[in-house]
Amino acid sequence: MVLIGLLLACADAGPSAAGDRVPAAVATLLQTVDARPATAWPEAADVALASTLSGLGQHAQPVDVAPLIPLRDVDQRFERLPESGPAWLVVATARSEREVLGRFRWTIHVHAIRRDAAVTSTSFDVPVHLDRFSDDADEALVAAMPTVERRLLRWVRSSTPSELEADAP
Amino acid sequence: MIPWLAVLASAGEFGAGGYMRVMARPDWMGGNGRLGHWNLYGRLMNEGPYAVLDLRYDVLPPEPGSDAPTSSLHARIEGGAVGGAEPTLGNLAGLRLSQLDVEAGRVAGRDWTFRFGTLDFEFGELGLYDMRPASLMVGTVGGAATWRRGDTEVRLGVGDAGFALHGLAYDAVPTAGLAFRAALGDHVEIGGGAEGLIQPGVPGNVYAPYQTPGMAYEDWIRGTVVSSFVAENPALAEMFPDPSPRDAMSGGVVAYLGFGDVGPLRWSATYASYRRVHPTLRSVEATDDGDVDLYVTAFTDDRTRLVVGHESRLGFGIVEVAVGGLFGDDRDGDNQIAPTDHDRIYGSGVVRTQVALRPTVALLVETSLAREWSRNGAMWREHADSIFASTDGLPDADGLEMGDTDTRDTWQGKGGFVLQPLGPGLWSRPSLRLLYGVQQSNVNVAFGNGFVETVDANDAFGNVEIHTHHLVALEAEAWF
After folding, report:
1. Of A148, B1, B134, B184, whose CB has the highest number of CB atoms within 10 Å?
2. Is B349 part of a structural domain of the chain?
3. Which of residues 290-349 of B touch A (CB under 8 A)?
4. Longest alpha-carbon distance in chain B
5. By three-state DSSP, how is residue A104 classified?
């Protein structure tokens, strides 16, 4: 029983809700490494990102991404977002990799730009392993979201600790 | 090395991924740290450490929004050498460069990809067993063309499996394989394929397939071919017959069916394969005058192997269940007299249940039941004082059977706690596990061990009778 208690005590209880939140314009794009045009994120991934922003004291307000899709440059895309208030552009690039021991490996490359007091950006890779041949970029992104959320949280908290600590639960 | 790889991965043109598992299973009962002999009883606690490092370098990286040609180099290093977790203490000789190839995409149409190098192809995995029955062209080096449009893929490959089959005794084994897979809507996937290998007899090539004429199968099994020849031909003892060349062939077919996303059924996969195993070309018989090479292609060219495996994964809120089954039928058409691993039937069922106690803590319970049956008679010993060489269950110094039973029944139960930093899920990794396992078998000491098996009055250690094996484990497993 002591061991069980220790394990439960060590477990991450997960984020809890914050109080009043600041509206933030959010645009999310998912692209693959071929000629197919970028698309909006699947709903499950958008919901996960909104939850992450909620933990940061922001309320996600989705932006229509259709005008952003023809643009290739991430900075140009970001310039199309509303010019006032916090704004986020998160572009995920999904790439199908070599199967490893029967699992279908994908790499999700995330490039995020956000504007609070200033404009900052980050990028990172998240690997996921799926068990279906026909799983596509949408499924790969959804599978990557738990890690994507954590990486974004860590990025924001490490770059503006004082502002966020005030909003954090 | 890992930080270095991480830097390369973030550079954009390099990528690294892979898999690892490492564990400590101190076995106070005298075993080697594995609950049972093999993963027919479920992979959990029956496997040793293993690591895979998969490396990619993009010569021409693929780009979003572009159908320009791409090219990448792939290398895979894998093996079971891990310092402190196995006998070689992580000696790098236990690792191998198992795959190395170059892929070129969209160079002859947007749907085509060409791969030159190693051609291993897998349809998927039975996660509960760590088995991939539907694999093709494993170890074959050559060229393959893949056509993929949407969720339909066809692959054709040709190459040479000579080194994979024969190593230092290399002889060319031209190989051809074909595979396809497709998704039928959102709930069904199908796949299938075949491969064929032929090793032509080449007179004069010492590594080509031959058969030593005049041998009796039973003499070969007993290791008495030379002595029988001398006994029958006392005047021709120096005239042991030369081998004659013959072709060796092997191959197989595989099939795959996936189904899921219906109610609590998240996904299920069934794999089947039927193979004619490539013949063993030679064996060595020790005689008073030295070793004699025997060429045995005709004695080993009728071995077949059928494997059917299934796995389903179901979710009920915080409870996830994986159910698996495996059936195998190995036959050796040349051998009707001696029990071997080439003449057996085996089957098992595994059920793993995982309950998410917290988002990152789970309770895991797994059970398995297995039966292995030797088609050619007794193969195992049920007790510490069981007979060794036997015939029809009776002691027989000249018997070809072993022990007193042709059936091995095994039950295993495992349970413990799992830490999953990335959240709940049966296959969520990394996974840190604290497990207890128990095995019950009708066979005595049915696990790798350091016990003395001989019944010798001068044996200083004595014999033991163990049918129930307990084991605890601290394990870590990750995909990255």
Report:
1. B134
2. no
3. none
4. 81
5. strand
